[in-house]
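[agent] plan:
  1. take the single chain provided in the ticket
  2. run structure prediction with default settings
  3. attach structure tokens to the ticket
  4. add a short note for the reviewer (M.T.)
[agent] executing step 1
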Amino acid sequence: MSKSKVWISSLRLKTLPLSISGILIGSALAYTNQFFDSTIFIFALLTTISLQILSNLANDYGDGVKGTDNNNRIGPERAIQSGLISPEQMKYAIIINVLILIILISSLLYFSFDTNEYFNLFTFFLLGILSIFSAIKYTVGNKAYGYYALGDLFVLLFFGFLSVMGSYYLYSKTLDLNLVSPSLSIGLLSVAVINLNNMRDLLSDKLSKKITIAGILGFKNSKKYHFIILISSIIFSIQFILFFYYKPISLIVILSYIPIISHLKKVYYIAQPELYDSELKKVAILTFIFSLLHSLIIII
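[agent] step 2 finished; step 3 output follows
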């Protein structure tokens, strides 16, 4: 593989639709409540995509320098693991991405709030810096939280609550408790992606002393945990539809449950961790489809 292809691979482009799923739902709710602003939408998308890329690069760097990405790992070869990208080069790419993110976050806040809204400006700038820090600290450093079974919690908070409720607040300057259910639904789908990743890497993570919830639970129980995550996501979705946005067209969201159920059936019969790899990509895509269908029924 050429060096340019390794760099493109390190961006993990297939994860980008997953990262914007919460933004789509938060924006759809803002649209139906007449708060939507296209400029805020564009900068929110650019910011969250850039954050996802930062997380991917930092993950490659953190796992690469720690030796977690090694020959025992089942998934696709990572940039530093390949030897074509050095840790120093990856660190430089991370720094550039952080600078781009600071510009994007500043632009997003500029278009979202008036200059006299000090509390909102300070709070969301702080959330932006915290998001950058969290994206890096997942695997980078001696106390990376991804190595202490905290990855699932952070994914739920950032891909669920901050993505859905945070984006809605940028438009409306208000918080709506109706957003809790879709935040949990999208957040849990995102947790399912990281859980699949950890289920696949059970052996290599154990050898590298990386502690994950899947690693703590083991092969069989991590499957049960996976089922709980995805069934809970469907339940919160149904709750949101029935209590807040029920109309005949809402039944189309059932289409998004079908691939989830199909995925769970496949996971149930998987006996070898390497078989989780193809399912991981599917869940990332179906999360995006899930958010599109929910956004559609909110807007119509």
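[agent] step 4 note for reviewer: The radius of gyration is 19 Å.
[agent] ticket updated
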